[in-house]
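Q: Amylo-alpha-1,6-glucosidase, please. Structure only.
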Amino acid sequence: MDDGRAVIARPEELLGYADPSDRPEATGVDKLVLKRGNLFLVANRLGDVAPAGARDLGLFLTDTRHLSAWRMSVSGGPLLCLSSQVSSDYVAQVDFTVTSLHEGDLLGREPLNYVHLRRDMLIDDVLVDRLVLTNFQGKAVDAWIAMEWAADFADVFEIRGARRRERGSYHAPKVERDQVVLRYDGRDGRRYATEVRIRGVGPDGAPAALASLDGRGARVKLHLEPAEHVEVHFAVAAGIEHGAPGRTRGLDEERPVPPSAPRPFGARASCTHEAYSAYAAQATRFATSNDLFTSALEQAVADLKALTVYHFGAPVISAGIPWYTCPFGRDALIAGYEALVAQPEVARDALRFLARLQGERDDPTRDEEPGKIPHEIRFGEMAAAGEVPHTPYYGSVDSTPLFLMLLSEYDLWTDDHETVEALLPAAERALAWMDRWADPDDDGLVEYQRRTPQGLRNQGWKDSHDGVPFADGTPAEPPIALVEVQGYCIDARRRMAALLRRRGRRSEAQALVTAARLHAERLEERFWMEGKGTYAIALDRDERQVDAVTSNPGHLLFSGAISDARARQVAASLLGRESWSGWGIRTLAAGQRAYNPLSYHDGTVWPHDNALCAMGMASYGMTRQAGQVLTGLWDAAQHFRQLRMPELFCGLSRASGQFPVSYPVACSPQAWSSAAWFLLVRAVLGLQADAPRRTLRVVQPWLPPWLDELVLHGLRVGPARASLRFTRGKANAFAEVLEIQGGELKVRIEV
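A: Structure for Amylo-alpha-1,6-glucosidase:
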């Protein structure tokens, strides 16, 4: 960092606007997403960040936007996009042709279709944008390529609409021979920097002429003989450095701007491909008779790698791009659970990371309590400056029991004795939180109420302001006891009892079993709605049933908290006409005043929610009902980019010839949506692991009509890797063990 005496600039002069929270969203939902580590890009389908400051576009390092504008043009003429794709290993290719140019332009006035532009983009330690212009006509062409840029260094909370009383200071751009440095001094005492480096390569390999360069853009002059091509490379590096000591707080991190190291694009792409290939090689490999479904599963594995971020030198899955590219307790734990049959390291990393940040004190400003698992951890300027309480923020009521559920399930799939033993103290503190802090009125139910005005009003997974409504649309008032959280806590105690029993701690295990039984009795007494054939979503502050029919009771099947008879009634409700959209289970059933299929939580379809419900159905022997959910989501996925399930989509009813309707600002990829495929596959195949006993049960496997065969290669159960083939039959699927390597494993097939 320099001595800070550079000229300070007005944001309006640099950006054309003063407040990032006022900027519009980009039009359309078709975007390019590139990510590696903590650096990611969200661009429009052309590869541009345009219009400038669009709220859902940009180059981000953790929670700060380092490019708020990035727009390419060729000789000022319009470009026709021919193709826009992103590979499964996150390398983008966009192809254009120059269709017409204005009078006086260097390329002439007549319509042109002979100049091809290929745009290749990837992220390793920097964003690389390679432009290759090829001349397919019979005469020479003179042209220029221009790039315009800006960096507003907005915090993600600003981009989402938060208003700040004061921002930091922008420096005038620093322009050098072939690079520009944009800098911003944040209110957290850190300096944020973006470096843009330009390199042109002519047909003979010689450098292309840089016609102009300033703080807002560059122009490169090009001359192409017939059949020649030229390249222009842009590399964008982002960094964060400490400034005034003592001003930072919490979880601020330093990441210097990576040093300039020119490398051929092909070499960078090869390294990226090798990194994704190595990750996939460690995961279960899925081979199916449906090539598209195989591709969707492969994409989901790649998404798990792409969504991994690194903080404190440790990996952890982030929630989703662009809004939630940070660790979320609930999301990481559910994604880790879903991914156990594909990549158990996702679960291990989530457990380790969250245990490190487990609550230690009673701090109302962050909704922190001893033993509580964090909800959300942010690393941007607003968090480090204390403007938001996310360092970490602990306002989720379900992360703590989900931590215990995942720890138990991780033990059953891996028998990773070292990791589980290291995490047992955190598990014991989590159990103590459930006993001491989660039930403040001592009525035997777990509930929540925020203790800071900056905290979340609703603290379950439906955490929007209207996410817990009565059927008439009236929001429930806290303190609120959510139905699914009661199930999580019941399951967490039962699971921890089994885990402790395996370690000889029988008296503690029995106490947990008793507590779980009493909790289940209260759940049944207080939440069941006889007239509606399902459970209330919650009890409000007056202990009234919040009577909306929702998907939340489906999680009681996932946690095994209710009787077989009740489970079948809940499943029938979830798959009934009001709750089943044709593509999936709605978060809130149609026919109620609260229903809105375009809302965030009151009628949309969330893939992870559906996957948990389906897994619960299968665990109660309703495999075909689970298959209905799998089929509905698969039918929808075929209409989404890269066969990827988004965070959510609209709950409008399906009809013949219609398509699923996108939710406009859904994250994609989203960890628990990408990983949902693995839990859905596990559900219909009936896979139940008991690695401590070196056993894998396959219970009533089933395949849908669109999937004749599914093979799992290298499924990990303890130290063993198993390969299994499933073939569709008239009733259940046929299962066959192909190979077991690496250790002892008994596979019990129960058709």
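A: Brief note, in case it's useful. The first strand starts at residue 8 and ends at 9.
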